[in-house]
TrEMBL record:
Keywords: CBS domain
Record CDD domains: CBS_pair_HRP1_like
Keyword Cell inner membrane: no
Residue ranges occupied by any CBS domain in the UniProt entry: 8-65, 68-131
Xref: InterPro entries: CBS_dom, CBS_dom_sf, Diverse_CBS-Domain
Pfam families per UniProt: CBS
Official protein name in the record: CBS domain-containing protein
Length: 139
């Protein structure tokens, strides 16, 4: 049985909710990622920041990314999956919530990785990918 830990990209990195968006953008560039999980002061997941969030939620509104924080853009309840969850649970979570990136948390509630569409494409069958795309991108 394939687990979330088997298909995730390991070594994901948090960004504190208090960190400014300028630093977040630099970190995304340096890590070559399009999203960062946001942590609260207790290192618990409190959101996910995407490169699109920075552009749409800050830059396009004429706001200063050096003055806005990751926490300013953290909205809603973040979704995550346990590292020992079956891949069918991963797909269900991503499909049900129409999300493209999913943080992976270990039994100690620590971030251990991220699952993206690219990870799914590398590890799943064409049929599974087809069903995922149909459910996530359906209008």
């Amino acid at each position: 049985m394939t687990k979330a830990a088997d298909i995730m990209h390991p070594g994901a990195q948090w960004i504190p909710a208090t960190e400014n968006l300028e630093r977040a953008a630099q970190l995304m560039r340096d890590l070559d990622v399009g999203a960062l999980p946001i942590s609260d002061s207790q290192e618990r997941l409190c959101g996910i920041l995407t490169d699109r969030d920075v552009v749409v939620g800050c830059v396009s509104q004429g706001r200063d990314p050096a003055r806005m924080t990751a926490g300013d853009l953290a909205k809603g309840t973040p979704r995550w999956i346990s590292s020992d969850a079956d891949v069918s649970e991963v797909l269900r979570e991503m499909e049900d919530h129409r999300i493209r990136r999913l943080p992976v948390i270990d039994k100690n509630k620590r971030l251990v990785g991220m699952i993206s569409e690219a990870d799914l494409a590398r590890h799943l069958s064409e049929q599974q990918i087809s069903e995922f795309v149909e459910k996530v991108y359906a209008t």
